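Q&A log
Question type: sequence-to-structure
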Amino acid sequence: MEAKMWDPYEILGIDNGEKEETITRAYRKLSLKWHPDKVGKDLKEKAGEMMAEINRAHKTLTNAEARENYEKYGNPDGMQTQSMGIALPKLLVEAHTSPFVLALYGLVFGFIMPFYVGRWWYNSTRYQKDHILNPTMSTFFKNIREHISQRNLIELLTAASEFAEDDLKYRPADEAALKALVEKIRRVSQIYANDMFSAPKKFTGKDVWKANILLHAHFFRVKIDDGELADQQQQVVMTALTLVHRGLLQISTTHNWYTCSTLLMNISQMLVQGVYCYDAPLIQLPGITWENQPKIFKEKNLYSNHQLMRMTAGEQRKALSLLNDKQFEEAIQVAKTIPRLEIARVLLTVVGDKAITPASIVTLIVKVRIANAPNKIVPRGKGVAVADIEDISDEDTAAIENFVADFGKREKETKQTPPEAYCPYFAGRKDSQWWLSFANYQSGKLVVPPVRISDLVSERVVVLQFQAPPQKETYRFHLSIKSDSYIGNDVMQEVQMTVVDRSTLPSEPAIVDDISEPEEDSIAAQMAQLRGQQAGARRGDDESSDED
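Response status: OK
Response body:
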């Protein structure tokens, strides 16, 4: 509610700045109207209040000091202080309820608020910015190595402190169900993976062992009969995927470890699809199991989804003869949706130059496309004719420079939602995304950190920059694009880059700074002639003065 300012002019019913005679006249008129002796009994109280206001207004406007205070501070008594208060219910301030009020204040400010503030502070100090526990990141940093096996990476993953939290940690009541699960996993792994499942050697805690069992049951698609344990397995899988993406992979790429980063990307695929390493990609299709997949490969020599999709309809049905008609239709429908990636163009260039020289900034341009995308969407920007990098030759430096300069603006305009990955063994929605890696073949190191392509629907261009090596030589690189959701969809291409001496670059054109003489009949020529005559006259005066 807005407070109303006290206004003596309004009380007397006159305009601001009126003379003293007008003020006195208005005062007398109102005094006769509101004098207590002039009104009835029912208005005497109001008349007294009005007369007090009228007298105060008259004094304010006729007294020089009071009038000055009012004009400066809005109050005839000078500057005043204001206090604000909060209206409390009467029940809270009554004497007989004060003990209960004090007890309530003590409970809120002495126990409840400190408890929640302390819990918030404790949780905020326990986690990294990516919501990973600090002890987990410490364990990862101390134990990850550049040359580490995929099995040891999985063991390191299960050593995360997240799996020792209350909702996932080992309980003695789980022992019997876990032992039965271990036997099933060992039987399946020995038959189909040629790799006997065993307990981790370095990390021997019960929580680590439980997480390891649940992950391998997911990899080998071993059914868990215990409902609570099955729910915990789904939570372990989703937590593990977060730890791979935001924890281990970040550490590996920070060190520029190409092989280690590639293995972690493989583990991401295993977690999403529920498969073991180096499984046949065909096992991602519905109806394909550990039991019938080896038979299909042995009898039909069929290994991958892409191989299946290159067959005719008759050949497909014959290859998947172990499936009934309904299973076959489902398998073919899913196989059609699994993306088949192609690298359409790779270009290494120094923008503005025709060659790559030592320590120059090299631009890598990669165009990828989904060959079996349902809708061939070709983003071209908003109202702008954009050149396709496939149509630009390696020698056309001007067109390449324009393409790179325009790429940033087009990239913001062409963001698209990727399709959902088919992953029936993963609890939750998973978008189909990709990693682009560029590594030096000789050193085995990443040249730039992997780029996450999160909006690939039909085709996409990726532009990266890095510094060329200082030595003149021909270098070989591995360009790798890996799916984070599917196995068997990765593509790789070898790229060569030759670094040459700067002397091989064409010399810069000479800058012509000669200024031609103006024509005789032009204004410029006339002005130049006039300046020359004036200069000659001054020289003549100087010479004559010298002779004198």
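Response note: Residues 292 and 322 are 7 Å apart (CA to CA).
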